[in-house]
């Protein structure tokens, strides 16, 4: 309450508003309510580019007009949501990948991870793993897999077919590889892949495990939010 924010140059105030929008909608609205000048800055359309709409509880039912306004500003979180739904739910693969890549190129972490997993599973391209900092893999993986808006109902056949192929061709090699100690002897299936080996896995098995977790837990954005209207 003692920080003289309004005494800073307006261009610096604008940067503060943009950072607040990227952090959380609660912070943005807190700034917006603090003064008339902050309200004016927070209501500029350019701020919509920075808002992470996935930081907003989906149950709050964000207006479609706000989501579309964010998308029109090239907002990475809405590019990601639309890309995921196009690829995984609507089987619009080229368009979905393009949208996810735009979000990933903007540095949106969920998109960086999901785009890399998607390229590896459906295109056999492991080169995108290099864009995920190794020390951030676990955090980014959990961030992506924690979103449960689809309730597992909206995967297309394309996803399910590749999941079967993954289990057939990669799971057996994961369990055969002697690169790490077995932590728990479970059935050789996708469900227990994260508790089977310790941290001494080879690089190949590490990424097989990540792909397995993605295929096991990832759910696309629910069609209750039809992004084609954006």
UniProtKB/TrEMBL annotation:
<feature type="domain" description="At2g35280-like TPR">
    <location>
        <begin position="56"/>
        <end position="125"/>
    </location>
</feature>
<dbReference type="Pfam" id="PF23310">
    <property type="entry name" value="TPR_27"/>
</dbReference>
<protein>
    <recommendedName>
        <fullName>At2g35280-like TPR domain-containing protein</fullName>
    </recommendedName>
</protein>
<dbReference type="InterPro" id="IPR040338">
    <property type="entry name" value="At1g67623-like"/>
</dbReference>
<dbReference type="InterPro" id="IPR057136">
    <property type="entry name" value="At2g35280_TPR_dom"/>
</dbReference>
């Amino acid at each position: 309450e003692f920080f003289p924010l309004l005494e800073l140059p307006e261009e610096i105030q604008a940067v503060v508003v943009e950072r607040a929008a990227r952090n959380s909608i609660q912070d943005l609205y807190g700034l917006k309510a603090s003064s008339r000048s902050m309200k004016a800055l927070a209501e500029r359309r350019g701020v919509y580019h920075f808002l992470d709409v996935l930081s907003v509880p989906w149950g709050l039912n964000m207006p479609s007009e706000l989501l579309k306004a964010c998308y029109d500003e090239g907002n990475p979180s809405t590019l990601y949501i639309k890309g995921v739904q196009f690829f995984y739910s609507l089987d619009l693969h080229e368009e979905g990948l393009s949208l996810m890549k735009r979000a990933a190129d903007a540095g949106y972490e969920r998109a960086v991870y999901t785009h890399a997993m998607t390229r590896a599973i459906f295109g056999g391209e492991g080169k995108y793993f290099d864009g995920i900092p190794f020390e951030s893999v676990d955090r980014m993986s959990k961030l992506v897999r924690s979103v449960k808006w689809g309730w597992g109902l909206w995967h297309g056949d394309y996803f399910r077919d590749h999941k079967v192929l993954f289990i057939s061709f990669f799971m057996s090699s994961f369990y055969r590889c002697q690169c790490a100690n077995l932590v728990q002897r479970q059935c050789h299936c996708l469900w227990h892949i994260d508790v089977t080996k310790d941290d001494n896995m080879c690089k190949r098995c590490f990424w097989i495990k990540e792909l397995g977790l993605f295929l096991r837990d990832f759910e696309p954005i629910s069609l209750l939010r039809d992004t084609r209207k954006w």
